[in-house]
Amino acid sequence: MRLPSFIYPLLAAAATVTAEPPPHPSPSPREAALDTLLAERESLKALDAAVAEARKNGVSEQAILEARFLYHVDRREDEAIAAMLPEFLKHRDGFKLEDSAIFGVKEDWLAVIEYVQAIAALGNNDKNAFKQHITEAFWLSPRQAAAFAPHIERLRLEEAMRSVKIDFQTKFSSVVADGEVALESLVAGGKAVLLHFWSPWSRECEAAMPDFLATAATLTANGIAVASLIPGDTEKILPDARLMIGKNTGQVNGAWLVDSGKSPIARDLRVQNLPTMVLISSEGKVLFNGDPTDDAFWEALTRINPSIHRPGSPRDDDE
Fold first, then answer.
1. Relative to the CA of 222, which of 13, 48, 97, 164 has its CA 20 to 30 Å away?
2. Cα–Cα distances in Å, from 310 out to 198, 288, 294, 318?
């Protein structure tokens, strides 16, 4: 049976041990319904229709639960994953390997149940329960460690950011002009400031630039300042940064700055990946720190200004 590709690395190890039978020209109605269910990612309505068809053709409730779980994992819907906990607990002891659509061993199934409990604990701000369940998930299925680690990192980052307060008097060199720019001159009575950490040497940043420019235009139109910072530990990056900015002349919003090489603000904010968005309140507190595609970023913006709406991706218009 063909398994779908996953956004999260979760279950990747389990999938590799699930033997794929040789292709045959006419799969049974049950196999076809299960294939469709496992591959469905379009919408919850489409998933429900695939579930109904799977039940009609005799797919087990265990396999349906696994497929629904993958749907929400691929879409990074932690709340929906946590809401599935009662169903996972109900099926915990009745797991049948022969009914599984994705698992090669029972321990991987049990690890996922611990993972779901950890996600639920994270949503309830129960750090001790989260640590307990995520540790057990590691113990049961070390091969899935790459799926569990991001949640641990996110929790630690959120805890660290609670004690951070940005000094708006901090000054940065400009990428496109002479002189320095202080953060306080950008905020200037605004509601918040977005720090966009990027590099012209990053393919991810280059690919995300159209989305960032659309985001920057939306935020500046709604009273939120935007400052983009490149690493300041080498001057060799400046020409390439100016070149990339120049390619987007007319679309550029906000300030384009160079982080300090000796005492970088990126270090204080624990920026480890590029691009990274850090939303700072007018009081200097961190409201969001993470990946630009994270829904939590837009949730934080909406709390500042309910009229802010996520713009459509310019890349979608080009397709």
1. 164
2. 20, 16, 11, 18
- Joined tokens for residue 130: 């989260």
Burial of 202-218, coded b for 16+ CB within 10 Å and e otherwise, reads beebeebbbbbbbbbbb
Q: Which secondary structure element, helix H or strand E, spans residue 281, and what is its range?
A: strand 276-281
| Length of the chain in terms of residues written | 319
Beta bridge partners, 180, equal 173
Give 171-318's CATH code, choosing from 3.40.718.10, 3.40.50.150, 3.40.30.10, 3.40.1280.10. 3.40.30.10
Q: DSSP string covering 13-66, please?
A: HHHHTSPPPPP-SS--HHHHHHHHHHH--S-HHHHHHHHHHHHHTT--HHHHHH
pLDDT at 76: 79
pLDDT at 2: 33
Domains of the chain, by residue range, sit at: 12-160, 171-318
Q: Which class for 220: exposed (0-12), middle (13-18), buried (19 or more C-beta within 10 A)?
A: middle
Among residues 193, 190, 171, 168, the alpha carbon closest in space to that of 288 is found at 193
Structure tokens at 120: 């639920």
CB-based contacts of 277: which residues, under 8 Å, 6+ apart? 194, 195, 196, 197, 288, 289, 290, 291, 292, 297
pTM: 0.70
Closest CA to 162 of 289, 22, 318: 289
- Give the Cα separation of 154 and 208 in Å (integer): 21
Q: Which residue has the higher pLDDT, 27 or 80?
A: 80
Q: What is the pLDDT of residues 252-269, one digit of tens each?
A: 778 999 999 889 999 999
Q: Give the per-residue pLDDT at 184.
A: 93
Q: What is the pLDDT of residues 88-135, one digit of tens each?
A: 999 999 999 999 988 889 999 999 999 999 999 988 989 999 999 999
